[in-house]
Amino acid sequence: MPSSSDAGHLPRHLAIIMDGNGRWAERRHRPRTFGHRAGARAVRICIDFCLARGIPALTLFAFSSENWKRPAEEVGALMRLFMRTLDTEVDELARRGVGLRFIGERAAFPQEIRERMARAEAATAGNTGLVLTLAIGYGGRWDIARACRELAAEAAAGRLDPASIDESLLASRLGLAGLPEPDLFIRTGGDMRISNFLLWQLAYTELWFTQTLWPDLDEALLERALSDYARRERRFGLTSAQLAGGGT
Ligand code: FPP
Question: Where is the signal peptide (predicted)?
Fold first, then answer.
């Protein structure tokens, strides 16, 4: 029986929808922003876990393109939290070998955040201990549409033969280009949906859902997800017999 401690059964890329901050705070009769601050502590636990277990890539959905429609006060508090976190954590992440990347529509963010994102990416460029991608202002449909627009423009300019557009070319223009597709997707907070996260890359990803609210995340929960993952048979459209090398 495979166990999560076998390197072959560790995900190479973990993608997470961190849901439940608001409910966690409301249950304590505190403002939703209190939950987001607790959520930032859970992000640290998750990064420490990936570094300790040797999971090489972690992608976190921190702010969706739809989250802009939340009350201005909550959006403002999240922006301040992102900014403060970038100010206080990037040096330490760089020292620990974490490479930071951002995917999403940056133009929508205030200049001071865009500058911090660019600085964080430059300060951690080339670090491969853990590639940490923060999806902020991100939507899976937006990412695919943007990549298609880029390819269409190149084709219209005569620099690209439309016949050469295939799955791998399109994937190479998406935000997560260069990383393996996520092996394991986790969503906290009880809802069982993808919510416009990594629509292209989750095609063959193992999905794992938990009722636990994001700020309550701990190592034991992540261990449970990993050991469930290690027991799953990933067939990628083949049969079990084919996978075992036993023919069709
Ligand atoms: C979803 O919970 C969470 C968010 C929209 C924000 C995620 C932000 C963090 C985890 C904190 C900081 C992150 C970084 C990278 C510093 P929700 O508000 O939708 O919760 P609910 O479903 O209970 O309302």
Answer: none
